[in-house]
Amino acid sequence: MDFLFENSWKAACPYNPKLDLKDIYIYDTTLRDGEQTPGVCFTKEQKLNIARKLDELGIKQIEAGFPIVSEREAEIVKAIANEGLNADILALCRTLKKDIDKAIDCDVDGIITFIATSPLHLKYKFNGKSLDDILKMGVEAVEYAKEHGLFVAFSAEDATRTPIEDLIKVHRAAEESGADRVHIADTAGCATPQSMEFICKKLKENLKKAHIGVHCHNDFGFAVINSIYGLIGGAKAVSTTVNGIGERAGNAALEEIVMALTVLYDVDLGLNLEVLPELCKMVEEYSGIKLPKNKPIVGELVFSHESGIHVDAVIENPLTYEPFLPEKIGIKRNIVLGKHSGCRAVAYKLKLMGIEYDKDMLCEIVKKVKEKREEGIFISDEVFKEIVDEVLKKRNKNK
Ligand code: MN
Predict the structure, then answer these.
(1) What spacing in Å lies between the alpha carbon of 147 and ligand 1's midpoint?
(2) How far apart are CA 96 and CA 142, in angstroms?
(3) Element (H, E) at 113
(4) pTM of the model as a whole
């Protein structure tokens, strides 16, 4: 077992299982579920830009929208479908012919058609419709879409609160009607990794060839790990949104799923990882939902180091305090100077700025950095430069 990670760009716990996940892929729903975040409404140009960036990253399928919602929505989905991207473009539809016709008008490659299957939704949303009624609607929608040559994913809404035998029954019927994929939607975000694995395993045993897709919500902060356990259970497709935006607490964050699978589970997704930060920034700007500074993978602080002990080690080998090198996603680490900074951090910064120094000068600068920070001043590069100039001036005077 390699505990030194020599010549590696990642340094995950060697006891992590290497997942033999062949041909798994992402269908991103930033443009549909992500836009359902209360208060978020992308413009056409913004949606096109996000779709292009997702395509540049190498995402296999993009759920571009819900065309029946409005004429404007349909127009945007159509524009994305005709953009000539490598990704397949999907549209969301209820199990209604008019929704599917609308999607067909938008020139999409496929649809995700959804209907709720849980007793809770059947009783309170569908006024007591039976599971057989639901099944019939699902089958008709899948058959209709397949007749039109579309890729079809059938999604059981609130699947994780549906008795497993009902879920198997509905998804088997969907497969027999031609569905290419069936979705387990954890609509209210109440599954655990264990239940997600169980449901996917059971479904896989009962399906012939339809892929299983997982769509997880983050109400308990489990969206990413539930998605991964779905894959462990046999799912092939995983639903994500950039920055994890979406209804309520959001969805599984694309950047977290991608890097967790890549770094922790050693899965090669074949993506252009350096596109991730730009994509996340773009969605942060367009959605107006600010990323916390400590947001995993792309937060402003996640590749910043201040404490002297950490900085010293990171200068020697960054993997001592980083799970992977930020260069891998096209960003740079940041050494923040503050009251915890030692000589090495300051020397490192001086070297980066091309400033020559000797030991006395270094000690003087370190002292000043600590003083300034404790006076409440953030040591930005400008402030640091001022400190250096001040020390240099004083020294020239004394000569
Ligand atoms: Mn959802």
Answers:
(1) 27
(2) 10
(3) strand 110-116
(4) 0.94
Q: Can you read off the two tokens belonging to residue 331?
A: 């960003």
The rounded Å distance from CA 140 to ligand 1 centre is 23
Domain that holds residue 380: 304-398
Between the CA of 111 and the centroid of ligand 1 the distance, in Å, is: 15
Token match 């000589």: residue?
Answer: 343
93 CA distance to ligand 1 centroid (A)? 13
H or E segment and range at residue 151: strand 151-157
213 with 183: CB under 8 angstroms? yes
Contacts of residue 360, defined as CB under 8 A and 6 or more positions apart, other chains included, come to none
pLDDT at 181 over 90: yes
Residues 83 and 158 in one domain: yes
Amino acid, single-letter form, for residue 201: K
Closest C-alpha among 301, 394, 377 to residue 338: 377
Is the residue at 292 inside a domain? Answer: no
- Out of 230, 254, 287, a domain closes at 287
Domain assignment present for 9: no
Report CA(178)–ligand 1 centroid distance (Å): 23
Report the chain's C-alpha Rg in angstroms. Answer: 26
Q: If DSSP codes are grouped into helix, strand and coil, which group holds residue 212?
A: strand
Q: How far is the CA of 215 from the centre of ligand 1 (A)?
A: 7
- Identify how many contiguous H helices and E strands the chain contains and give both numbers: 14, 10
How many angstroms separate the alpha carbon of residue 248 from the centre of ligand 1?
A: 9
Q: What is the Å distance from ligand 1's center to 223 Cα?
A: 11
pLDDT for 291-312, tens place per residue? 999 999 999 999 999 888 899 9
Domain presence at residue 14: no
Is the Cα dihedral 224, 226, 230, 233 positive or negative?
Answer: positive
Dist. CA 51–CA 28, nearest whole Å: 10
* Residue with token string 């919602």: 69
Residues 220 and 358 both lie in one domain: no
Tens digits of residue pLDDT in 233-288: 999 999 999 999 999 999 999 999 999 999 999 999 999 999 999 999 999 999 99
